[in-house]
Specification:
Bacterial polysaccharide co-polymerase-like; disordered N terminus; rod-shaped; four-stranded antiparallel sheet; 3 domains; 509 residues; 14 helices
């Protein structure tokens, strides 16, 4: 707005615009309170910008049905998944001291959301279902498959919504598409691909392979322990330790009893021998020889008796037995006496006294018996020492066998433990392969008959467009008036300068 002085009216300014020039009287130059906005000002703004307001209104009313009929409707399909704790979120126990680690629910949901929203899963789904089946009009953007896939991923990311329930173990998968059947098919296919993909990700075959290796290792140890124990028992002929120990102890006890008895007999025979030797000193060694008292006949009868006894002993015992040796010693003694008697008879001397001879024979017999019993006692002592050694060796063998048995038992327990864990891991593996996972589909997606957009009829959107067109036009007009710094009307002049306008003159450039 420009202000020009009028000739003859010095000091009186004028207000002019592209339509009129206004005159006003001079005032004090002090601004007062602004005049409130009224209907007249509204009409002035409306008529000033009426073409712009009408253009915006018509544009909104015309474009609304075009957008309504030409833009495709949007249909939405959704599916709900529920999660629970499963074995795939627990580490298989490999070592004996390991305890399974349990993951929290929030960590599980975050992991599942990451799998559901992964780009790889979306690319697999787009390729399996076909981009042209999900977005048929995508060919208008590009004919190259690579660019079509990139565009499809952008649109798919826009139309797919995956959301976890607050403080729950539910996840909702939603997809929007122009075709309700396609939307439901995409959601169901995505859920199926997600379940298969999570099995691939969560399935770890390394613990199963490690358990299988451990089972084979402890089976080999078990077989080796069984072989070592069996070979040891075969080598040392030990099978029933308690029974064999009892037999050894009983045998030693018998040997000890026999040894004590033999030692007692030796002691008794030595005393008897001492008595016989004392009696022999008081008996005459010889008597005059006569035909009636010839002792050779008796000695020959005794020799025959001893020879018979020798034959009887040989039928019972082997050569070198103590009893056989003792009888043979007596035979040699008798033969010696017979030879002496023959020599004495040939010289015409006196014969040996029979009592003296009997005592001497008994002494010889007693000495032979003592000798044999002493030999027997030494043999029994050697047998006792050997029995003690056998008992000590048996104790050592028993300890070794029990160590081998403990090793065998430990290997068997470890083998059974890892075999059990391997079976559990294999069952979990089979469950994973059969997709028996800890996720269930509560509700599958189905084709909806009602679109999510538009939800109202065309008349509703026309009324809304008309309202918004008028409102937008008025808002734009008032914005232009507010931005404009000139005095475009008498009312604005009075409001800004706080002086009355006397008259207005139309202005034409």
């Amino acid at each position: 707005m420009t202000q020009k002085p009028i000739p003859g009216n010095q000091g009186v300014p004028t207000a002019a615009s592209n339509r009129a020039v206004s005159f006003y009287s001079a005032g004090s130059g002090v601004y007062g309170k602004p005049r409130p906005f009224n209907l007249r000002d509204l009409l002035i703004v409306f008529f000033k910008h009426k073409y712009m307001i009408i253009s915006i209104f018509c544009l909104a009313v015309i474009l609304t049905p075009l957008v309504y009929y030409f833009l495709p409707a949007k249909y939405e399909a959704s599916s709900t998944l529920m999660f629970r704790y499963g074995q795939e979120y627990q580490s298989p126990m490999v070592s004996g001291e390991q305890t399974p680690v349990r993951v929290g629910l929030q960590e599980i949901l975050h992991s599942e959301l990451a799998i559901l929203s992964s780009t790889d899963l979306k690319e697999r789904l787009l390729k399996s279902l076909g981009i042209e089946n999900i977005y048929p009009k995508l060919r208008a953007f590009s004919d190259e498959p690579v660019k079509q896939l990139e565009y499809a991923k952008v649109f798919f990311e826009r139309d797919l919504h995956v959301q976890a329930g607050r403080n729950s173990n539910l996840i909702t998968v939603t997809f929007q598409n122009a075709d309700p059947g396609t939307a439901a098919k995409v959601v169901n296919s995505l859920v199926a691909a997600y379940i298969a993909r999570r099995v691939e990700i969560l399935h770890d075959s390394r613990p199963l392979q490690l358990l299988d290796k451990k089972v084979a290792e402890y089976l080999e140890r078990l077989k080796r322990s069984e072989g070592e124990l069996q070979a040891f028992k075969q080598q040392h002929q030990v099978f029933a330790f308690d029974e064999q120990r009892d037999l050894l102890l009983k045998e030693r006890m018998n040997l000890e009893t026999t040894a004590r008895t033999t030692q007692s007999l030796v002691k008794e025979l030595r005393q008897k021998l001492s008595t016989l030797e004392s009696q022999l000193k008081g008996v005459a060694a010889s008597l005059p020889v006569t035909s009636e008292n010839d002792p050779r006949n008796e000695l020959e009868m005794q020799l025959v008796t001893l020879q018979r006894r020798e034959q009887e002993l040989l039928s019972k015992y082997k050569e070198g037995n103590v009893f056989v040796t003792s009888v043979r010693n007596e035979i040699q003694v008798v033969k010696g006496f017979i030879e002496k008697q023959k020599q004495a008879a040939a010289r015409g001397r006196s014969a040996v006294n029979t009592l003296y001879q009997d005592l001497q024979k008994e002494i010889i017999s007693t000495k032979a018996e003592v000798s044999s019993l002493e030999v027997r006692s030494k043999e029994l002592e050697a047998q006792l020492a050997q029995a003690d050694k056998r008992i000590q060796e048996f104790d050592q063998q028993e300890r070794t066998a029990r160590d081998l048995q403990r090793t065998l038992t430990a290997n068997e327990q470890l083998y059974q433990l890892y075999q059990k864990r391997f079976e559990e891991a294999r069952v979990s593996e089979d469950m994973s392969q059969d997709k028996m996972a800890s996720v269930n589909v509560i509700e599958q997606a189905s084709a909806s008959e009602l679109p999510i957009w538009p939800t109202k009829g065309v008349s509703f959107y026309l009324a809304l467009a008309a309202f918004l067109g008028i409102g937008g036009g008025l808002a734009l007009a008032f914005s232009l008036e507010f931005i404009n710094q000139g005095l475009s009307s008498p009312q604005k002049t009075e409001q800004c300068l706080n002086i009355p306008v006397l008259t207005t003159i139309p202005y034409k450039a």
